Amino acid sequence: MSNVFPIRGVCRLADRGVIRASGADAASFLQSQLTNDVAGLVDATACLAGFCSAKGRLQASFVVWRPAADEFLLSCPREILAPTLKRLSMFVLRAKCKLSDASDELAVFALAGPAAAAMLDGTAVWQVRARGASTLIRVPDAAGVQRAWLVADAAAVADVPAAEAMSPEAWRWLEVESGVVTIEAATVDRFVPQMVNFELVGGVDFQKGCYPGQEVVARSQYRGTTKRRTLLFDCDVVPAAGQDVYASGTANEPAGTIANAAAHPLHDGGSALVEVRLAAIGDELRLGAPDGPLLTRRELPYPVPIDAAVAS
């Protein structure tokens, strides 16, 4: 089945929330907590970043941008925003940094296809442009479709372009196609960043210094201990985040976990980003049980270094 087709239009991402970090120490505080070099962001760039436990497991993943020198905005799924905000706040201590939930103030819209291309006008991935009172962020293309976020004041969304409506489900499928994993409630504390290819998509900076779990993440990188990766699969049913995946060679225990999944916009079934033990890649992979629906692997839009790990 072919997955290359035009998805286009605009939709509001009601499932995305926004955390605001403001104050004289906002940059240094976030730099000490997140996996990426957010202190190096300027007002024209955004980035991916993770928030890990002391054991290096991702508690949240963010899109981060910096509208002002002393202000950062971090977007993550609403379903994990409150516990993430609470946990981050525990580490503020005496830092001059105020953390707050800005989800009711800012609306996140998704643009795909011509609606995105017309506004981006050559803007590079993770570049930020002001559009009136709104902020345009180019996110990675998926399935040959240009994509962007437009973050607008929730009380005045006049800057949102008039375009055909796109379903949030279609956008979610594009997110899966992009190969960039988002941590959801079902996958909190499940993955070290490398397990979900986070360093391959620009979510980890190995030169930035310490943050919770940094030693574990660095060890996985430099000692070659990454034995699990995330790959792209299709299935005749729609998987769900957190579901187990089984391999024919190891039917007694799961070989992997669904990280993100979405229904296909045009036909039955869906696609999924699956975190899987690399030694099981050559086996037949099944969803939910050793005799569950078959998972069929497809190529991600970026290379994944799996050969050495499989050989070992």
What does this structure look like?
The chain is an alpha+beta fold. The chain folds into two domains: 9-178, Probable tRNA modification gtpase trme, domain 1 (Gyrase A, domain 2), CATH 3.30.1360.120; 227-311, Beta Barrel (Elongation Factor Tu (Ef-tu), domain 3). It has helices at 26-31, 78-89, 114-120, 168-178, 214-222, 307-311; strands at 9-12, 16-22, 46-52, 58-68, 71-77, 98-101, 106-112, 128-131, 134-142, 145-153, 228-235, 244-247, 256-263, 270-277, 285-287, 295-298. A hairpin with a 2-residue loop joins strand 4 and strand 5 (71-77). Mean pLDDT is 92; it is low at 308-312.
Computed structural class: alpha+beta
Tally of individual helices = 6
Shape field? globular
Based on the coordinates given, report the CATH architecture of the largest domain.
Answer: 2-Layer Sandwich
SSE succession: EEHEEEHEEHEEEHHEEEEEEH
